[in-house]
Amino acid sequence: MSPEESAPASRPADTEGDVIGQIEETVLSRRAFLVGLGLGNVGGAGAVFGLTRGEAGFQSLATLAGGATLPATTRYSLPAVDGSDSGLVIPVTFEFTDGKGELFVNLDGIEVRHDLQLALREAIATAARLTDSSFGETATHVTFDPPTSGVLALRGKSWEAGLTVALVASLRRQSLTQETLITGVVDDEGALLPVGEIETKARAARAVGAQALIIPAGEPTEVTVQGLRTIRVRSISEALDRIP
After folding, report:
1. Are 232 and 116 in contact (CB under 8 A)?
2. Which helix (H) or strand (E) holds 77?
3. 184: closest CA among 203, 200, 198, 170?
4. How far is the CA of 159 from the CAs of 85, 155, 238, in angstroms?
5. In which band, very low, low, confident or very high, does the pLDDT at 22 lie, cut at 50, 70 and 90?
6. Are 105 and 121 in contact (CB under 8 A)?
7. Tens digits of per-residue pLDDT, 128-184?
8. How many Å apart are CA 102 and CA 48, to the nearest integer?
9. DSSP-derived pairing of the beta strands 87-98 and 74-81
10. Which CATH architecture has domain 18-35+43-242?
11. What is the pLDDT of residues 88-113, one digit of tens each?
């Protein structure tokens, strides 16, 4: 056998995008498995899923459990990347009414993928845990500002941090500045994990007037957007301390 035949085949090194994609998929796969076993662990009761669209344009995604007073209405902005890999910032509003833990999403001009649905459910669970609260006696209504034209398909992996921050602010009845935005996946322990296309999101954030973007401490990309500070944090709790 020749040396060429006996030598092991070389494997291309993983790119930054490959590594980040593996982190995201691992977190989401584990959570999807846990949700499949029973999302009812959130608040101590079961979860009921429905996909029927109401007359007012809301789609029921899940019913959680527990007990809580009504949180405050909160509006926040989320950096994102659309289907053509262009950066944009989508304002989102959380409103609350009496209910039994229902979660509703306004679908006006927005396509909500499964990963965004999962990010919303996980954000609710994380916000409740961080504040020692519950959404069990509340119906949560989430409205994403619709695009100016056409239909916008939203990917939700990197939105979980912003969704969680907004929900915590609602529970604490605190206002949020739109000058400091955030992007990142949140793991089961509340740690902030790296996400892709940070530079694109940073440019979009600056374009709408943001002065700072919070990113995961382990994010490998160095952001160089003029007029925008980047703040590296390790967890959602640390991020909340950095948002005025």
Report:
1. no
2. strand 74-81
3. 198
4. 15, 8, 17
5. low
6. no
7. 999 999 898 899 999 988 877 677 777 667 889 999 999 999 999 988 989 999 999
8. 9
9. antiparallel
10. 2-Layer Sandwich (3.30)
11. 899 999 999 999 999 998 877 877 77
Burial 131-169 (b: 16+ CB within 10 A, else e): bebbbbbbbbbbbbbeeeeeebebbbbbbbbbbbbbbbb
Q: For residue 235, what is the DSSP state? A: B
Strands 110-112 and 102-106: unpaired
Task: Please provide the distance, in angstroms rounded to a whole number, between the alpha carbons at the two ends of the chain.
Answer: 67
Do 87 and 49 contact (CB within 8 A), yes or no?
no
Q: Tell me the residue type at 163.
A: L
Give the Cα separation of 113 and 102 in Å (integer): 18
φ/ψ of 67, rounded to 5, equals -165, 130
Structure tokens belonging to residue 4: 């060429």
pTM of the predicted model as reported, rounded to 2 decimal places:
0.74
Q: 93 in helix, strand or coil? A: strand
Place of tokens 């007037």: 209
